[in-house]
């Protein structure tokens, strides 16, 4: 064999081996592709140009239950159960033109399953040399996805329902809380973390006169407060030693720091009202928190100290008056145990401030003829006179003569007796026991006594010896009328007292009609005696007021109250008091004429009317200048309408402009009449 032949054989063998290798590679790729197709999760079906099934993979076999006999069968036989024949033919025509069809959704129930499967069909045409050779059907089973999607939609619906329900509950709760806060008259202000106001209650609107819209999201709380101090967090209302900062940022940073140590703190400050006035308040502060954000704001509840301070002042004045009294004042219970005594009594009796309650009233009194405290108590309270004489012993004297009076006090369903003991001096000659009535110097003590009608005799003597003012005081002293106390209750307005006395006399005249009274039932009697008690006490007729008070208490305590004795006693009381009241009215008319002074009337000019109109306009617009304008007209208003002058002065001083507006409307015609 020649060399050329050998080389030729080698070349042929090499070419054959390369052919075999490539052929094996192609076969291996086809096998790999066939394996991939057969194991694909999507169903794959190949058809020829007449849409006859040629081959399929495992997934398609499972879905459509294909078997070797399925080969050469039209695919329309398997799809027509779920998709109409006309629709399939339209799809096949489109594919035959070389146009793919995708995402055809349909439901198909395999033979071995009870439920439908959700399938998505895509058809891809096979084109070669612009000839349609067949198509590939891809079937994607989306049943599980559809199920998950359906479940997700259901969960979303349920979640939305719960969110809506919770939102409604929260909104209702917020609305309920808002209504509670707004229905309360308490001043409640909420702010964010730096003091910007976020909530302003209706109570705050009424108290401070700022509107909700003026404050929320527009004003910082620091603008409304001054003289801020921190009260001791321990709760004893003393001021803390820590100094409060003044800047808004620093104040709220300080408050935040304090609230991290204590759940609540209290600030003492002056809180601004709309027209410039400040009121002293305690601000009770708590923080609003969010879990991830910490402190988001603060809530301030204002405690108005105006009435509290006024009450403390009154109590201080009362305590000062009691402790400065030169009479012995004792408070005892129904059994006679001394529960309280004033400073003078402690000094005279040798008691200390802490051991006075350890003594009994019998330790002070010197009884005669086997008398006891209980018998004396009834005689004191039921006596027909203000005061009686008695004997007591003190720390420095075994026996001294004194004048005693008593009043019954009902408090918290318990009875207490207030006793005043005055030593008899040269200005108080000794009187027989239970005899001549002495002057009652205590406006607050109102024991039941009867009046003695000596008006004509006393009036004659007073007209001869005393001037007009002393006549009134002497007359009231003799007839046991607490005139000065009544004037004090009426802001020392004599004109108001005069008018009230006229109405009181008319009221007594009505009550004197026994025939009219007898047709009333007990509930009406209770109202009658309550009204009589109030008017008599206001005008200083303390004895009549005490009688009415006793009758009212008897009606309350006894459902079967017999009105006859009370009516008889009421008639006696009215017949005694009415002439006394008329006598006082005559003296008051003499002392206080009702017509305005001539010089005041002549001073009313057009300028006066213009100034009065300015005052009305300032009051109507809640202008603080009204407090400066009013003093310029005060003397004229007092002369024109003394009955309403004090009320108007008080209303303007306390910025009660709505009340002042009504009074000015009443006074305006009187002013215009005098100007004409």
Which descriptors would you attach to this protein?
50% helix, 24 helices, 16 strands
Average pLDDT taken over every residue: 79
The percent range for helix content is 40-55%
Provide the structure class. Answer: alpha+beta
The stretches of 5 or more residues where confidence is low (pLDDT under 50) are 426-466
The total count of helices amounts to: 24
The coarse silhouette is elongated
Q: Give the strand order of the largest sheet, numbering strands 1, 2, ... along the chain.
A: 7-6-11-10-9-8
The tally of beta strands, per DSSP, is: 16
Q: What is the gyration radius calculated from CA atoms?
A: 52 Å
How many angstroms does the end-to-end distance come to?
Answer: 162 Å
Strand content: 15-25%
Tell me the major beta sheet: 6 strands, antiparallel
Please provide a written account of the structure:
With 676 residues, the protein is α+β, with helices and mostly antiparallel strands. A 6-stranded antiparallel β-sheet has the order 7-6-11-10-9-8. Strand 1 (43-48) and strand 2 (53-56) form a beta hairpin. Helix 17 runs antiparallel to helix 18 (542-557) and helix 21 packs across helix 22. The model is unreliable at 426-466 (pLDDT under 50). The chain is built from 24 helices and 16 strands.
């Amino acid at each position: 064999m020649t060399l050329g032949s050998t080389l030729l054989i080698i070349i042929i063998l090499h070419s054959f081996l390369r052919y075999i290798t490539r052929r094996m590679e192609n076969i291996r790729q086809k096998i790999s592709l066939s394996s991939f197709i057969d194991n694909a999760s999507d169903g794959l079906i190949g058809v020829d140009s007449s849409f006859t099934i040629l081959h399929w993979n495992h997934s398609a076999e499972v879905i459509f239950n294909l078997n070797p006999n399925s080969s050469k069968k039209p695919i329309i036989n398997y799809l027509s159960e779920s998709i109409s024949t006309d629709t399939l033919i339209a799809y096949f025509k489109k594919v035959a033109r070389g146009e793919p069809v995708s995402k055809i959704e349909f439901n198909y129930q395999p033979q071995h399953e009870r439920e439908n499967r959700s399938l998505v069909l895509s058809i891809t045409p096979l084109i070669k040399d612009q000839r349609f050779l067949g198509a590939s059907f891809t079937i994607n089973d989306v049943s599980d996805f559809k199920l998950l999607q359906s479940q997700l939609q259901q969960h979303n619906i349920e979640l939305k329902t719960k969110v809506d329900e919770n939102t409604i509950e929260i909104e209702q709760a917020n609305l309920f809380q808002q209504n509670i806060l707004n229905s309360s008259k308490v001043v409640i202000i909420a702010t964010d973390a730096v003091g910007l106001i976020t909530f302003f209650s209706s109570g705050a609107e009424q108290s401070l006169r700022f509107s909700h819209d003026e404050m929320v999201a527009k004003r910082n709380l620091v603008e409304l407060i001054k003289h801020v101090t921190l009260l001791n967090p321990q709760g004893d209302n003393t001021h803390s030693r820590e100094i409060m900062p003044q800047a808004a940022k620093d104040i709220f940073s300080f408050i935040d720091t304090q609230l991290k140590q204590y759940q609540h703190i209290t600030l003492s400050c002056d809180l601004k009202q709309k027209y410039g006035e400040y009121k002293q308040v305690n601000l009770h502060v708590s923080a609003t928190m969010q879990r991830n954000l910490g402190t988001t704001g603060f809530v301030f509840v204002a405690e108005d100290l105006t009435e509290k301070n006024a009450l403390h002042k009154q109590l201080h004045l009362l305590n000062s008056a009691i402790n400065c009294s030169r009479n012995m004042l004792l408070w005892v219970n129904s059994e006679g145990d001394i529960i309280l005594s004033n400073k003078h009594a402690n000094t005279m009796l040798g008691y200390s401030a802490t051991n006075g309650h350890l003594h009994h009233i019998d330790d002070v009194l010197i009884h005669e003829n086997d008398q006891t405290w209980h018998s004396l108590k009834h005689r004191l309270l039921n006596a027909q006179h203000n005061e009686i004489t008695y004997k007591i012993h003190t720390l420095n004297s075994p026996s001294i003569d004194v004048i005693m009076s008593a009043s019954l006090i009902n408090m918290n369903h318990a009875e207490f007796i207030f006793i005043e003991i005055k030593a008899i001096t040269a200005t108080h000659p000794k009187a027989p026991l239970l005899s001549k009535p002495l002057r009652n110097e205590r406006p607050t003590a109102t024991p039941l006594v009867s009046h003695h009608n000596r008006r004509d005799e006393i009036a004659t003597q007073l007209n001869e010896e005393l001037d007009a003012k002393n006549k009134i005081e002497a007359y009231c002293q003799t007839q046991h009328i607490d005139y000065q106390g009544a004037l004090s209750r009426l802001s020392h307005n004599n004109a108001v007292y005069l008018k009230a006395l006229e109405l009181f006399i008319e009221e007594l005249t009505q009550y004197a009609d026994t025939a009219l009274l007898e047709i009333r039932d007990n509930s009406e009697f209770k109202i009658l005696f309550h009204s009589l008690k109030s008017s008599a006490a206001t005008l200083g007729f303390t004895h009549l007021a005490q009688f009415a008070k006793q009758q009212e208490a008897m009606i309350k305590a006894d459902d079967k109250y017999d009105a006859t004795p009370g009516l008889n006693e009421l008639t006696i009381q009215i017949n005694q008091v009415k002439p006394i009241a008329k006598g006082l009215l005559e003296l008051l008319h003499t002392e206080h004429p009702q017509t305005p002074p001539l010089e005041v009337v002549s001073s009313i000019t057009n300028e006066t009317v213009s100034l009065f109109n300015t005052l009305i306009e300032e009051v109507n617009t809640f202008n603080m200048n009204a407090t400066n304008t009013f003093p310029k007209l005060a003397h004229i208003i007092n002369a024109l309408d003394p009955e309403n002058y004090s009320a108007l002065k008080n209303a303007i001083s306390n910025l009660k402009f709505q009340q002042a507006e009504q009074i000015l409307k009443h006074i305006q015609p009187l002013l215009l009449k005098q100007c004409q």
